[in-house]
Amino acid sequence: MRKVILYIAQSLDGYIARADGNLDWLPQQISEKMNKFYSEFSQQVDTILMGRKTYDQIVTVLSPNQWPYPNKTSYVWTSTKKDSLNNSVYFIDTDLVTFVKELKQQEGENIWVLGGGSLITELIKNNLIDEYSITIVPVILGEGISLFPYDNKNTIFLEMKECFEENGMIQTCYTVEL
Fold first, then answer.
1. Beta strands, E only, the chain
2. pLDDT in the model for residue 116
């Protein structure tokens, strides 16, 4: 069965973005080791899940002239139905939990949860994330969009798969204990 993997960066105080969605605090230069880790991870996924605000951030700020994931199928959750842009980006307004459960049963590589606080929250609440790969960036934002919202009532036990430090950033990878 395909795994759903949350691969994301967070500030030391647990935020994945500023309150307005800005990611200006992320480092512009990434080490060779971090790039290698990302490259190996990227080769193991063929599907990306994200929220609409994350999608907007990608196409307006991070990569406005070119879609950065052309060889992966991307699903963008939005309350406003839009037509698909091409054969790789689809706007979805169906039930997230049902969709992800069905997606996990299909043939294919792993599924990357790229971002979106609300999307991540729903997946965590429904125990649909199999692996947490989190890069902790040495910055304290003070406020923003929390990776782990306080209204999550589930206790999820994790097992350390990998951890390393590079240029002050800590890359952690946990699998969900069954």
1. 4-11, 15-17, 45-51, 73-77, 89-92, 110-115, 131-137, 145-146, 158-166, 169-176
2. 87
> Where along the chain do its domains lie?
4-176
C-alpha 154 chain-centroid distance: 19
Give the predicted TM-score (pTM) of the model.
0.92
Helix axes 117-125 and 96-105, enclosed angle (nearest 10):
70
Facing residues of 5 across strands? 112, 131
Rounded to an integer, what distance in angstroms lies between the CA atom of residue 19 and that of residue 100? 27
CATH classification (class only), 4-176: alpha beta
pLDDT tens across 42-61, in order? Answer: 999 999 999 998 998 898 88
The torsion region of residue 13 among left (phi > 0), alpha (psi -120 to 50) and beta comes to: alpha
